[in-house]
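Sequence in, structure out. First:
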Amino acid sequence: MKKRLLFAALCLVLLLSCVGCSAKKPGVDLRVKLDALTVSDEDLGIKDQFSALSDITGGSIDDALVGRWVSADGRTSYTYAADGTQKIESEDYGNFDVKYTCMTCGDYKILCEEVPMTSTDAEGNATESTALSYTAYEIENDVLYMAMVEEHDPMYTTNQTALVSMFKADGSGSAARSMAKNPIDLSCLNGTWVTEKGSFTIENGVLTCDGESGKLSFNDKNQLVVEKDGSATVYSMNLSILKNYDDGSEKTMLGLYYTGADEDDLPNLLHLMDDWKTDYAWDTWYYTGSFELQ
């Protein structure tokens, strides 16, 4: 009798566990994250206030930031130390060290980085200097979400900030676990995205362009995958906001990059994108498109 009761209790526990597992965890809404982190230096009250980290009073190290953070594609990592030094390692741009501190401005957490700069005059003479960079950030569920603070400069009327997501690395340096438990909600891409060459619509995980549809998903590097007729195209992706300071208007943009690196890729949106050549990121032609949310 005791065995039967124990077995029944165990079955009930397993059943409740399965019910809990069947409840779908909501994904990350990238547009909400970007909106929450988009802010200008004027809004923060720090415009032209600091020229070096030493000018910042009340700066401190955020313990939640300390550690190694890795990009979804594994090509870039940021390692923040408790002593205010940061090591940036990038397969595309090389490795370098910067100093940093953190401060709170109203509802925003701001990462302040002192970036080394080298300028060369017409005669080839180099001058070393530093510049301060400000980034609004949020840490949630082992993900570091960042957006550059917009600089309101009278020399131009528009500025653009993009959402960057970095994932907490484990002891072996892998960020796979934190990526797996933070899926992107496909619905955050819903809408009609327009460029001068045409448009496409995303709705409920389906991308429609020129009357033809393809299924959408994200791969394990958070790249956007469009599958159609058994073939797939993989796009690198970012979301950005373009703001016009003259009239206060904002535009949400979707940036897509296609390298054609995978042999099975089918360039679904190639006719809507421009081709480029670069000497530092890829060794071949790549395609880019900047699409505005209608």
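Second:
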Amino acid sequence: MKYFGSILDFTIERNNDLLRAFREQLALARYIVMPEIFELVAESPASRFWVSEERATIVISAMIAGKPLPRMRPTKREMFNEIYTRFLIERKKFPSKTIYELVSAIVNQPAPKFYLTPRTVGELIYRIKNGWYDKQFDRNRENNPGERSTE
């Protein structure tokens, strides 16, 4: 379960991917209007689907069972619909593979976009640039001194 302020395993990679797209959009922009840049970043291709294999497997399993996903945000719903569409194709090709195996392969494929709102992109870029994530990682290391450093 993800909690507010939690740092996911791939946060650093996601942040690097967001910064890459942000810098690309800045370089392409004739005029820099940040809300427009954030919208372009949100719609930029991502290096993968930024969801864990476990969470995606849970959601795809629910979709297979026909369970409604009423509280899911539209951007996340769109992302899971794309993953589900790819899952159905892969399941026909590889019927002996488990849901987890198929979903794991899919979420690590390039995604057509970040599936974030422009506002969220702006908030994440702001946090990245102001070192918020660095402080969170430092705090995690202080609270868990036995854990390996990823540096």
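Remark: The chain has seven helices and no strands.
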